[in-house]
Amino acid sequence: MIVKMGIRECALKSNAFRALYTVYTHRDDTARRWKSEGRKVIGELGCDVPDELIMAGGMLPVRVYADPEKPLVETDKYLEYAFDPVVRAQFEKIVDGTYAELFDALAISNSTDVVIRIFLYLREMHRVEPHKAIPPVEFIDWLFTRNRLHQVRNEHTIALFRKAVEGWAGREITDEEIRAAAKVCNDDRQALREMEKLRSGSEVRISGSEALVIIGSAFFMEREEHARLVREVTRDASEWPVLTGPRVFVTGSDQESTELYDLIEQTGAVVVGEDHNWGDRFFDRDFPMEYTPVRGIVDTYMLREFSSKKAFVSQRVEAIGRWVSRTNAEAVVFYTNRYEEAASWDYPKQKESLEGRGIRTACFAKMQYPVSANEGLSEQIAAFTSAVREVS
């Protein structure tokens, strides 16, 4: 039986899954509790803010997310309409005072070009409109080219960010504290990898929508508790019914909700993996405990599988090939929002590479936000999954 958000009844019978589901659907509750207890909360915009440093400072890292139902009253005063619609919705919550009450500071990484522009806008707003309720902002200026010179530069960048986090914490952060936080994050990543085996292994027992809830809840809660609940869900899921149908991999725009996956899985397919930042990419690489803390952070965040927003086309072709092989996907859905052209540049070469291996592809580009705003999308997805089923 399928219930709201595409989550099956067997999942909602799991106490651990229900706990994660509650966090996923009530994303600010843990942060509000921390604030009520006098503890600090740090917002993160961009997918490359090192959680380990924030946690080492005794603070809670929380991912900025969009509210598709929130009118963009403040955003329309400052941002062009040609911004990625998800980022526009995120920006609204930053500048309308929503996050000023929740965040003690906002850390922004240059994970995409549009996020860099958001930082520049916020920096200027702090200068010319100091009365606006916008959290203090710190920028992490990563270099994404993978050579030794740039890695040295990144170590310098993270050392500077460490100082900023110490300022928020009101004290120095020791190497031992960073390693302790890294151990917690690694344990959570390992718990998610154990869960992933029931999602993309030979027998699929966890759907894509359920996996997004399990993974995404990590962005809004304490990591120790998240790891514990993920392992409990994994034990429960080992007895859930096996899912059959075409195995689909999703790439392109980040999916902050399960809407797209619900549409795909309602056709009888199952989403076995993705490479966006609200899914599998989150736990792609561990912090190497043998490294110094700063070097370990650089290694963890800069040597993950390539993001579509900060990679050459050739790198993305190779990366998606590895992801598809790992998940044994039979088809790939490319889904990109309007004004997010960078994510679609990879498609022609990726399509050529994948279809040369017998992997079917479908491209949905320049899509409206949210997913439900696209008329006829469910019928198009159903036609694609039906075609995949016929040849599998």
Task: Indicate the percent of residues in helices.
Answer: 40-55%
Number of strands: 8
Order of adjacent strands in the largest pleated sheet? 2-1-3-4
Low-confidence stretches: none
CATH fold type of one domain? Rossmann fold
CATH architecture of one domain: 3-Layer(aba) Sandwich
Distance between the termini: 25 Å
Tell me the radius of gyration.
20 Å
The succession of helices and strands, N to C, reads: HHHEHEHHEHEHHHHEHEHHEHEH
Q: What is the overall silhouette?
A: globular
CATH C-level class of one domain: Alpha Beta
Largest sheet: 4 strands, parallel
Number of helices: 16
What's the pLDDT, averaged over the residues? 94
Structure class:
alpha/beta
> What percent strand?
5-15%
Structural write-up:
This protein has 392 residues and is α/β, with parallel strands linked by helices. The protein has a domain at 27-171: Rossmann fold (3-Layer(aba) Sandwich), CATH 3.40.50.11890. Helices cover 48% and strands 11% of the residues. It is built from 16 helices and 8 strands. It has helices at 9-12, 15-25, 29-36, 51-56, 75-78, 85-95, 113-128, 148-169, 175-200, 208-216, 223-237, 259-265, 293-302, 313-327, 347-356, 377-391, and strands at 41-45, 60-63, 105-109, 137-140, 247-252, 270-274, 331-337, 360-367. Strands 2-1-3-4 form a 4-stranded parallel β-sheet, sandwiched between helices. α12 links the parallel β5 (247-252) and β6 (270-274). α14 (313-327) packs across α15. It is globular and about 60 Å long.
Question: Helices, strands, pairings?
Answer:
Elements: H1 9-12, H2 15-25, H3 29-36, E1 41-45, H4 51-56, E2 60-63, H5 75-78, H6 85-95, E3 105-109, H7 113-128, E4 137-140, H8 148-169, H9 175-200, H10 208-216, H11 223-237, E5 247-252, H12 259-265, E6 270-274, H13 293-302, H14 313-327, E7 331-337, H15 347-356, E8 360-367, H16 377-391
Parallel strand pairs: 1-2, 1-3, 3-4, 5-6, 5-7, 7-8
